[in-house]
Amino acid sequence: MVRFLNIALIQFLIVLFAANVLEATELNVMDKCWRPNPHWRRSRNQLARCSVGFAGKMTGNIGKGVTQYKVTNPSDDPLNPKPGTLRYGATLVKGKKWITFKRNMKINLHKPLLISSFTTLDGRGVSVHISGPACLIVYKATDVIIHGLKIHDLRYGYAHVANNYYQGWTQYAIGGSMSPRVKSESNYFVAPKSGRKEITWKKHNKGDQMQWKFYSVNDYFENGACFGLHKGVGKARPNYGPSQSFTVANAKTVKKLTSSAGALQCTRNSIC
């Protein structure tokens, strides 16, 4: 998973978790677009045309001039990145790039990894965990797709968190620092039986408390889960245009929508 993700001046693809069925009523808007295609592995760039939300359609990430790069080596050497590693593909492959992963792997980043504009990290079909001690950083970049990785801490940027299922967190379900803006919409929260039932975590820095914009709309809460808002918190409006807007499913359907969240279990030429 991504341990921390710094976000500034970024357009990014909203990722909605997958279901393992193909009935239209039980697929989110992203899955309806690409998962019925049995040849999705050969048509990975379809994902860019399926995108919705703040970034709109990510067509700048496909077409001529895109380098296809596959991660085959989970090691990380910040000083001398080796071919086949994630760091090599993200930093030394120039221009537009679409990065995939050959197999299940865990990547421990030893230094922060800067993600540049027009980069796609596509984790579909495998289980990839990216962890610390360092982090992914997206700074002054646009047209970045990160698909299939868990993001739990937002800094600086804006996130629309929609149709996710959270159960039994230890410290928090949604966290952030450095005055981010977060809209939580139609998510399903089940608090742990004991311990902290507050959903959000906000790391305040001196003088930034009035800048926080965390708010909840149409979320569903169980077992005492609560979404606390602090003084000064206002609504984070996405201001979506026609190409960005999408229908968010009812929160009570989220358990079914996310029943197979994680790496997709399907053969190379099968419908997922």
TrEMBL record:
InterPro entries the UniProt entry points to: Pectin_lyas_fold, Pectin_lyase_fold/virulence, PEL
UniProt KW keywords: Signal
Gene3D superfamilies attached to this UniProt entry: Single-stranded right-handed beta-helix, Pectin lyase-like (2.160.20.10)
SUPFAM superfamilies on file: Pectin lyase-like (SSF51126)
Residues spanning the signal sequence: 1-24
GO MF annotations, alphabetized: pectate lyase activity
The protein, known as: Pectate lyase
Organism: Thlaspi arvense
